[in-house]
Amino acid sequence: MLLSWGVLTLLSTLAILFYFYCTRNFNYWKNKGVPHEKPRFFFGNLIELFFPKETTGRYLEFLYRKYQCPYFGIYSLNQPCLVVKDPTIIKTILMKDFQSFQDRPIFSDEACDPIFTTSLGIIKSPHWKPLRSKLSPIFTSGKMKLMFVLINKCAVNLKQYINTILGDDGLDIKDVAGKYTTDVIATCAFGIEVNSFTNENNRFRIVGKQMFEKTLSRTLQIMCYFFAPSVVKLFNLKFMNPEATSFLRKAFTDTIQQREIVKNKRNDLIDILIDLKNKETQDDEFKFYGDRLVAQAVLFFGAGLESTSTTIAFILHELCINVDIQDRVRKEIKDVTERCGGLTYESLQDMKYLDMVIAEALRRYSLTAFLHRECTTDYRIPKTNLVIEKGTPVLIPLFALQSDPKYFPNPEKFDPERFNNKNRHTIPSGVYLPFGDGPRNCIGERFAQVATRLGIIHIIKNFKVERNSYTKDVLTFEKAPFLRAKGGIHLTFQPL
């Protein structure tokens, strides 16, 4: 009996200690006088993110509208996080005082995932800046002009494929766009032409699906990297699918070895990375060795594949629903290509209405729910008494900002005119951020724009995009970290 009471007392004591450990910071925002969402034991406010009733973007939008103030607090387990709403503060964080917010608060440990944590998007100070400087020349307009030929060839294959599926009512355009984007990134980043339209089961296509598989376990692992780093370290979780990572590593290193032997040039990412590696000196702050070179190509594949294919799918959905907009895009493509003597890199820059359509799609369908930065020094928000302490994550709720009727009247309406020359300049800085802003904005924006435009151009120039019995005027979305249409995006292609 005494032993039983002793065990019970020990367990009770451990439970109490565990409770106080998990809730030790739960008065943090209250003590600072910051409006905040009441945390729950252990999870803080993460239960709504890990097991959401809505998408992550919608949940943050609910909080965004609930708190009528420039910022508010939430808890990631017991870690206080600040959600910033005010565009002026957002602009200050991303640009003016960027030196205090250089890193992203994503778990980063080469021992857990060397590919993910040494890629440009994730790597932390002091390494991110020299790496960014090395990679920036890859995405200049001159380099994009050279890659234009490679991307356009993939877009021609897309057009030829659509000719074989005319009138198909069961089509999910996200799958079609995924094949096109897989081909674009495989040829530009890995130097391999795979043509997913004729060889749907090629390894690049399979790996692309593996990287974004919709299982609960993968979703939880990804969310842990953002919000529960202690869990990542405890269980040695991988952000990247290990099988996909192994394949991409081998494909990349094999191509580099072959390219260095035969010395042929394709003006792709591999050529540029080889040149960067060969030009390194002992004084370089960041050197490519081991998986560090591979990491840039793998991130390029993963980030570019999902974002570009999803954007194309959402654009085609809106062009299907809004026939007048589709007709206007088609007319502009025809007029510009005739005036420029064909489809060229320069002619893409003249398609202003298409640019407006893409911009509105990126506003209406924010692919990521938030931008995030980590405060790297104690920082007082200008004109306030709030000091953001070193190590505090800061979230910028993109979906909520880009759906705020204060900045975008009637935000549920798809209206490209928001981004015409007159209206574009009335949008406050700090509320429209599809590619981020400041020194750590998305380095691949120009590449994504070229790939998206060419895909849309070859489709709209040659086909009508029409509704079918499966088409939904208003899309609903999966409860996932990234924006995905529930049940797919269905439409039909008809010849002009």
From TrEMBL:
Keywords: Endoplasmic reticulum, Heme, Iron, Membrane, Metal-binding, Microsome, Monooxygenase, Oxidoreductase. Pfam families: p450. The keyword Oxidoreductase applies. Heme binds at residue 442. One of its GO terms (cellular component) is endoplasmic reticulum membrane. Its cofactor is heme. GO terms for molecular function: heme binding; iron ion binding; monooxygenase activity; oxidoreductase activity, acting on paired donors, with incorporation or reduction of molecular oxygen. It is a peripheral membrane protein. It comes from the Eukaryota. It is found in: Endoplasmic reticulum membrane; Microsome membrane. Belongs to the cytochrome P450 family. This is Cytochrome P450. It comes from Ignelater luminosus (Cucubano).
